[in-house]
Design brief:
Elements lengths: L1 H34 L8 E5 L4 E7 L6 E8 L3 H15 L3 E6 L9 H16 L4 E5 L3 H11 L4 H34 L3
Parallel strand pairs: 1-4, 4-5
Antiparallel strand pairs: 1-2, 2-3
Helix pairs in contact: 4-5
Length: about 190
């Protein structure tokens, strides 16, 4: 009887892990076809979407480094779109990356649906490609980055949204680089 309970528990863990793996594979397939068409030069903007504040970050021209920009206060869709269009023009951005929140088990949460809705709206409203990037643990990484730089908790709370956008963008660029390296390895000499 104890072995049966143990095996059922193990099967449940395996099922959860497979579910997470399948979500990652699905995400990679969804983004990878568009990423391969993205120019290796040009700035990319990233957003960490929140209900009241949106963190913003931008890459350099060569897509090597990222920096946080001032956060945006979220009000209406029209205002948000105007601000994002203004940033795209200011930085001559070639793509926009939105953080896609997941629960730790890989399942989607309420904000996941909101991120997907905004992804669709931005995709329909902008002339540049819009990508989704898994943002699990981006806020924790952002908090640690700021703490390591010597910021106080009060300063961290003011900057965490845009620092999280910088983490999201860094993750996206690393994923893009990994895909590019895989494509190079797959091509015959």
């Amino acid at each position: 009887m104890d072995n049966t309970k143990y095996l059922i528990g193990q099967l449940s863990n395996i099922q959860t892990q497979l579910s997470i793996i399948l979500r990652v594979i699905e995400k990679e397939i969804t983004n990878s076809s568009n990423i391969s068409n993205l120019s290796p030069k040009g700035r990319i903007l990233a957003l960490d979407l929140g209900t009241t504040k949106i963190g913003v970050a931008v890459s350099d021209e060569l897509q090597i480094t990222v920096r946080a920009l001032p956060k945006i206060l979220r009000k209406s869709w029209k205002e948000l779109l105007k601000k994002i269009i203004s940033l795209i023009e200011e930085f001559d951005a070639i793509a926009l990356v939105l953080g896609l929140p997941y629960n730790f088990d890989g399942s989607e949460c309420d904000m996941s649906q909101e991120a997907r809705r905004l992804h669709r709206n931005f995709s329909l409203s902008l002339t540049i490609p819009v990508f989704l990037q898994d943002e699990r643990l981006s806020s924790k990484s952002a908090q640690q980055n700021l703490y390591d730089q010597g910021y106080s908790m009060k300063e961290i709370s003011k900057q965490i949204d845009s620092e999280a956008a910088a983490v999201i963008l860094s993750d996206f660029l690393a994923y893009k680089e990994e895909l590019m390296n895989q494509n190079i390895q797959l091509k015959p000499n």
